[in-house]
């Protein structure tokens, strides 16, 4: 299975891997046009043989669409001043450095607000996934929105996820 993980990571890094639900090999094989029953060695060979398409959205000679990473944010309320904001993501390049940026905006009952943020560096695993927990504040009597973005060093940009407390 490590050979398959490496092939998937390499194909993601080259930007040639079709989108598929994380870990769903049947969907991946279908997207690649392989038969319903496929040998792992055949899947690895197919992944290794994928080439970027020439020409992108602007036509021949233009770069292909960038690979878009996907992230999710989940907030766990804890006793005390800080809470756990778990950020997970996929479709980054294998072992790619990723910056997770959390921008927080708090709205107080008197109509005032405050903003702040932090950046947490992480490294994607061999499959291009990240999973990190960041401490965030949720003041009592206020509504706080935490907006999360993750950017890989190769330029892959994650969608933005937001949670409120």
Report on this model:
With 165 residues, the protein is an alpha+beta fold. The chain folds into 2 domains: 2-49, no CATH class; 68-164, Immunoglobulins (Immunoglobulin-like, Sandwich). 18% of the residues lie in helices and 40% in strands. The chain has 3 helices and 8 strands, in the order H-H-H-E-E-E-E-E-E-E-E. The chain has a 4-stranded mixed β-sheet, with no helix packed on it. A hairpin with a 5-residue loop joins strand 1 (68-76) and strand 2 (82-90). Helix 1 (2-14) runs parallel beside helix 3. The N and C termini lie far apart (40 Å).
End-to-end C-alpha gap:
40 Å
Give the number of DSSP strands. Answer: 8
CATH architecture of the largest domain: Sandwich
Poorly predicted runs of 5 or more residues? 53-65
What is the CATH topology assignment of the largest domain?
Immunoglobulin-like
Percent helix range? 10-25%
Q: Using only CA atoms, what is the Rg? A: 19 Å
Largest sheet: 4 strands, mixed
- Averaged pLDDT: 75
Strand content: 35-45%
Reading the helices and strands in chain order gives HHHEEEEEEEE
- What count of domains describes the coordinates? 2
Name the quaternary structure: single chain
What order do the strands of the largest sheet run in, or round the barrel if closed? Answer: 5-2-1-7
CATH class of the largest domain: Mainly Beta
Number of helices: 3
Gross geometry: elongated
Structural class: alpha+beta
Q: CATH superfamily assignment of the largest domain?
A: Immunoglobulins
């Amino acid at each position: 299975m490590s050979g398959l993980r490496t092939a998937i990571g390499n194909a993601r890094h080259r930007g040639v891997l079709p989108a598929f639900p994380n870990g769903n090999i049947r969907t991946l094989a279908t997207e690649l046009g392989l038969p319903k029953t496929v040998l792992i060695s055949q899947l690895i060979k197919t992944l290794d043989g994928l080439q970027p398409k020439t020409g992108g959205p602007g036509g021949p000679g233009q770069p292909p669409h960038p690979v878009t990473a996907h992230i999710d944010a989940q907030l766990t309320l804890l006793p005390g001043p800080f809470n756990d904001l778990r950020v997970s993501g996929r479709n980054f390049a294998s072992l790619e450095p990723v910056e997770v940026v959390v921008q927080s905006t708090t709205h107080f009952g008197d109509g005032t607000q405050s903003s702040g943020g932090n950046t947490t560096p992480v490294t994607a695993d061999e499959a291009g996934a990240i999973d990190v927990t960041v401490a965030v504040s949720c003041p009592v009597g206020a509504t706080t929105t935490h907006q999360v973005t993750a950017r890989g060093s190769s330029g892959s940009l994650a969608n933005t996820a937001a949670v409120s407390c």
